[in-house]
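Technical appendix A lists one of the benchmark inputs used to test multi-chain prediction within the project. The record comprises six sequence entries:
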Amino acid sequence: MTGINRRQLKKDELKRDIIDAAFEAFAKAGYHNTGIADIAETLGIGHGTFYRYFQNKRDIIDHVVADLASRIAVAMSEENDPTGARTLDEYRHQVARIGESLVSILSEDPRIPRVLLFEAMTVDDALRSRVSEMLDAMASMTAAYLHHGVGLGYLRADLDVEFTAKAINGAMIALVLQDMQSADAAIRTRFSEAIQRLMYDGIAARPGA
Amino acid sequence: MTGINRRQLKKDELKRDIIDAAFEAFAKAGYHNTGIADIAETLGIGHGTFYRYFQNKRDIIDHVVADLASRIAVAMSEENDPTGARTLDEYRHQVARIGESLVSILSEDPRIPRVLLFEAMTVDDALRSRVSEMLDAMASMTAAYLHHGVGLGYLRADLDVEFTAKAINGAMIALVLQDMQSADAAIRTRFSEAIQRLMYDGIAARPGA
Amino acid sequence: MTGINRRQLKKDELKRDIIDAAFEAFAKAGYHNTGIADIAETLGIGHGTFYRYFQNKRDIIDHVVADLASRIAVAMSEENDPTGARTLDEYRHQVARIGESLVSILSEDPRIPRVLLFEAMTVDDALRSRVSEMLDAMASMTAAYLHHGVGLGYLRADLDVEFTAKAINGAMIALVLQDMQSADAAIRTRFSEAIQRLMYDGIAARPGA
Amino acid sequence: MTGINRRQLKKDELKRDIIDAAFEAFAKAGYHNTGIADIAETLGIGHGTFYRYFQNKRDIIDHVVADLASRIAVAMSEENDPTGARTLDEYRHQVARIGESLVSILSEDPRIPRVLLFEAMTVDDALRSRVSEMLDAMASMTAAYLHHGVGLGYLRADLDVEFTAKAINGAMIALVLQDMQSADAAIRTRFSEAIQRLMYDGIAARPGA
DNA sequence: CATGAATGAGCCTTCATTCAT
DNA sequence: TATGAATGAAGGCTCATTCAT
């Protein structure tokens, strides 16, 4: 009994390890420059073993992306409560926190944007769609917060929630990409604050302010 | 003399044709799924001929990117006059125009973002850097306009010009990507206006407004 | 004791099942396109188990062929009594019956000629010889009957028993192959009668007849 | 002009050489045990070159079979004149000659029956059908001669032309297979005569004869 | 004894690149 | 100069076989 369980556990573990190694390899060398043998060698397993866990090369990038997708989904669901704010300030902080969170999910590990935003986009249409949907989901979440902000009267009533959310999302992804290159906390903070000021105050000088 | 020139002309023409065909192919099938033979076949030339014009496969994507880079540089330089505005309204319009222009350069042909933002990013570090620099250049241009706006007093004096420019750039690229998928003029207009309102008015409700 | 016997029985049973499943698979997909795993899966056993009963893939086709050989030998020995005829007519009927029998052994199941005459012939020289010997044995049996027929004066005294037997055998195998494709009883009867008439009457018109 | 022709000639020659080498290899080691690399190595060419001439491994066996088919068709058409006989004796000789001819086509080179009758039958249904049709064509030709013989009154009026032809064909193929193994001229003659006597005289003792 | 996880030899096929014509 | 025939490294994938559990 336990024998079977332990074996299954080992299998699951190896499957995870393969996904991780593939992720690692795809991030470092790119999907197209990575061979199944490279992944297997990293793990010290025979390359035939790979095919006991995944159907083919295409299958593994799918799993890598799915893995990232679920990580992101989990992280997003943890923070997802657009209704929790009682004051403008609370709202701002909440939005800032969720924004940081979204960015962090991708920024946490520079391999994530590399694989998700670049490598996965060159595999085929299906995967491209898959990733696009993930990004759309992030924009939808942003939109939900904006929508709530409008409802509470914190945000402009005439706000084009959907497209403003997409714009903000674009800015956040720019941040992620910036982070991917430099990974400098100070820069990240400045970028983050620039986005927030852009959001709440705009860039224009205020006659009254 | 003229014979040589004419020959040179023909050579240049074919070189251009190869670049265009490669661009076309990379956009449609991706860099890694495109063979030299595919490109040559499209042009009706022998695939050995390719190697008389380009050193290798890596070389051609470089030229494709360089070609896009120069197209973008030209388009940017045409519009590049951050000092031309005399009133806030003029400034806004000028910035809107240059923003539209930047977006248009990439959006004009959906193959451009496909090749530049996806395919080129999976070739190697050198090319990735190359494209990053192009995007940085775009952000720098945005920054120049912001800088000028601050100088003229149209924009907030405490504006973090550099990072706000990057944020806006990210939003514009999001627009480009959106356009790449749908190519719907109405959507593009809405997205564009959302970005502009975000820039000048922010999203917050104004007590006084 | 009985426990061991029962175990032995079970082992023998599984061995049989594996042979049958292999026969089935080889007939359907061919020896070279059949994997050990396919055979094991059909039986619902682990494919490692296969190797407890057979040394390797080569071994199993040997057993399949041996199994067919013994089936054929049994069927042949049941009918084998070239001395039993007392009149020409009896002789003819006896020969017809044994001929039908020989054909039936192979024709009974279209998988038999498929495996024996085609698949087994592409494995290696040894197996090819094995099958050839089986066919030779069939020809020898035919020859025995012819020999007896000559001895009794029913058949031509100058009959080249050996090679005529081979020729008749070839005709019978043609019938088997025909049957393998169509399995139409009427066709089979016509074919069978054509062979018998060919044997006894030849094809030539008889001046006196 | 001549340059192109010479090149084309060389290509045709190499294509032929590949077909021949494949034929050779399939006959010696079998289709399934022969690698593309084996064929290429025999010819001293790179194995990539193979794929400039044939789409894949399946393609080459098709060409090998087609090549044999056309050789056989040519040989058959050379002899094909069932109407040329004026006397029974002439008819007999004619039939004997065409029979010898049919047998010779296959027997001439023991690799032919090996590839055609065994290897090709193991590849897939399509090829199996292809070869079956070839054998049917041979039987049809035999049938045509029998039909003519009946018309001229040389053969029994009640002869089942079609199936008798198939039976005779089976006998001839048995001869071919015999030849494939031994290649002894004396044996071949005996076998051939046994078939002819079987055809014209049958095996039965004749009361009057 | 049964199992199936692991293995790696081996095969087919592609394609960037070279070079003789 | 243009060509395309030739090449072989490289890579994806299969499957017979072994062996620890």
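Chain A has a mean pLDDT of 91. Chain A touches chain B through 50 residues (CB under 8 Å). Comparable benchmark entries are summarised in Table A2.
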